[in-house]
Design goal:
This protein is α/β, with parallel strands linked by helices. Helices cover about 40% and strands about 20% of the residues.
Length: about 375
Amino acid sequence: MKVCLLAPVPPFRGGVAKYCHALAKELEKRHELLLLSYKRQYPELLYGKASQIDPELTGDTTLKEFENISYDVDSVSIASWLRTSKTIAAFKPDLVILPWWVAYWAPMYLYLVRSLGKKGIRVVFICINVFEHEDGGLKNFLTRLVLRRIDRFIVHSELEKGELLSMRPAAEVKKHLLPLFEYHPQPAAGHDSALHLLFFGFVRPYKGLDTLLQALAMLRNHDLRLKIVGEFWNDKHRYLELIDELGIAGKVEIVDQYVPDAEMSGYFSWADLAVLPYKKTKTSGVIATAYGFKKPVLATDVGGFREVVEDGRTGKIVASDDPGAFAEGILWFLANRQVDFAGNIAIFAAQHMSWHSLVDRIEEFHGRNEK
């Protein structure tokens, strides 16, 4: 099968680029792949002060992994959209895969869907998110405007499947859990007897760091350590003030920076538990990352988390936006360190979270599995 994937891949950084890179590698194993990535993904004004490029990587690294790849797409240039459509059409793909996660892509995707549709080319949307985590009226309008024009989707939670079908009842929507990111864990380093908690990833309001800090304060007499590892997009001072007010500065370490893959292993090897006190979300790559390091998770009951966390086996689910409930979850892990979380995670991930099975689902849109 001939497949075109238009997506950010390294050296662009972040979970979406990592996701698309892993998907591309699996597609390359089984099909003739045209991988189109960006020379400009977002305008600097929109992305903010943070760099869009992983400082540890270069484009040359990814270029060597794929037979047919280019970094020519400019999301801001209409002329680039026209060239991209022509490039895809010349390749004559059986399927075109477009990842969807933010409403920013609405103008370019609307053009591509219409242009490729006129040429009889099938388009599949992989919804890493259906609606944005931090949504709003305009973002929701643009999301609906685009997704109501699509007939084929992959989603990563039952909740998002329902959202799509409510917008597009006739669409073909397939669900597959967010696949497991593969890492090479370091040997477990010896450390003190404390329970080590890791909050990982960009720090944004919907992720509930304030809830976690309040829960930690409730457990100030227990042997706990917390590392907050990831860039603060805004309001860092607010969290620093909260840490001081709660009197837990001695239990908290902040690493305010983007962490490339090469450095992740040190943090996850240190951790006993990944914590996700999110107030709202649909899915999270942090769970897939934690599972990749065979680490259990404590997560709130939001979005599709209950579908990916086996309560008491691969982690624990507690009520959202509730410091007391989150504190109880931490206490549960203190009392249940003997559980074989790593073994349970390995079994669950093999059954439900492989890139191979995700590509199987994509192939179903074409109706055959042969190359």
